[in-house]
Amino acid sequence: MDKNFSFLNSISEISEATFKKLLEAATLVNVEAGNQLIKADESPSKVYLLISGFMRAYLSSETGKEYNKKFFLPYNFVASLTALIKNEKSRLTYETLTDCQLYEMNFEVFMNFVNTDLSICKLYVKTLEGVFMDDEKRQLEFISMNATQRYLALKKEISDIDSLIPQYQIASYLSITPVQLCRIRKKLNANY
């Protein structure tokens, strides 16, 4: 069975005909590391399904400091959802951290499917529920865990994160400095 079809069916049941309809409306693209698929202060028009590679969504301050909001692993939907829904400019930049393969689809085309196909509508609702639960989980981590616990939770989710991206980006995601992250790693290594 096709991995992409299996992934979508793990969210909400769709038929092979519906999957084919989605595939025909999507384009498979290969994107090199360091490319910005969605830029801050631009109006996005597409949604993506990350098939391989690693991405991030981040906010840049006026001074140029970057704050990582989310990391994306394979089989994750990637979109500036608020900007798409409200038809406004994205506040975040979505960047490939490694070479990536993605399906891209025009959001209006997708929403037309949502409004005309019940199984795609259910898929959309289940995806939105997943986004909400992920955001809630991250918020709870920030109010209930210290930096070491947040780092260990991230390592549990993405075991090889230390080899995938630079330390300063991991630190940014954890809302700590790279020096603090270095201390946490040293302490953890000393305990093992």
UniProtKB/TrEMBL annotation:
Please give the PROSITE patterns that the UniProt record associates with this protein. Answer: CNMP_BINDING_3
Which domain of life does this protein belong to? Bacteria
Report the Gene3D superfamilies cross-referenced here: Jelly Rolls (2.60.120.10)
- CDD domains per record: CAP_ED (cd00038)
Which Pfam family is one of this chain's hits? cNMP_binding
Q: Residue ranges of the Cyclic nucleotide-binding domain?
A: 10-114
Which InterPro entries does the entry mention? cNMP-bd_dom, cNMP-bd_dom_sf, RmlC-like_jellyroll
Q: What is this protein called?
A: Cyclic nucleotide-binding domain-containing protein
Q: Which organism is it from?
A: Pseudalgibacter alginicilyticus
Question: In the record, what lineage is assigned to the organism producing the protein?
Answer: Bacteria, Pseudomonadati, Bacteroidota, Flavobacteriia, Flavobacteriales
